[in-house]
Design brief:
184 residues, alpha/beta, 7-stranded mixed β-sheet, two-stranded antiparallel sheet, globular
Length: 184
């Protein structure tokens, strides 16, 4: 997997092997950063269900001041730490090995951009993972004023915002089996 553009353009990063993670396609990554190109400079970026850390690293490559990576899988966390070290961006990265939902409940800072790529078609206490992420982001007031939340999920998923105030669905775009949702 390669970084698309910015100061680490074409640099290769390590990705987990096997089927336990699903790397975000370069096409979807490019679309996300095209949408938020005006917000990325000096942004605080949160990468949830981070996998290889590609999204948070891409954010730093494009000018974000820092990225926080959250994943509970020890193999993914070690890969993120290795990728961060290989690029020399340890001072811009915070890597957390923890359940994403528990981490969101404990966070006490805000972010300009939050990206979540939970396992598709999974539920947390009967609620789709993505809906639970949205709820916790809103309840925890984790987005800065004017911030943006991106959710990548299966093409069949639609955010349920009926019980959530404070965010609106700005757009959804399909990429094969995936859909990228932008909420602000």
């Amino acid at each position: 997997m390669r970084i698309i553009t910015g100061k680490f353009k074409n640099r290769e990063i390590l990705a987990p092997e096997g089927l336990s993670t699903r790397p975000t396609s370069a096409r979807l990554r490019e679309a996300l950063f095209n949408i938020c190109q005006m917000y990325i400079e000096d942004a605080d970026f949160l990468d949830l269900f981070a996998g290889s850390g590609a999204m948070g690293i891409e954010a730093i490559s494009r000018g974000a001041s820092n990225s926080t990576f959250v994943d509970e899988d020890a193999i993914c966390v070690r890969l993120i730490e290795k990728n961060v070290a290989n690029l020399g961006i340890q001072d811009q990265a915070r890597v957390c090995q923890r359940d994403v939902f528990e981490q969101l409940k404990q966070m006490n800072r805000q972010f300009d951009i939050i990206y979540a790529d939970p396992p598709y078609d999974r539920e947390w206490n009967g609620i789709p993972y993505s809906d639970e992420v949205i709820r916790l982001v809103v309840e925890g007031k984790l987005l800065k004023e004017g911030g943006v939340l991106f959710i990548e999920d299966s093409s069949s998923y639609q955010p349920n915002l009926s019980d959530i105030s404070g965010l609106i669905l700005k757009r959804s775009k399909k990429f094969g089996r995936s859909t990228l949702h932008q909420l602000q």
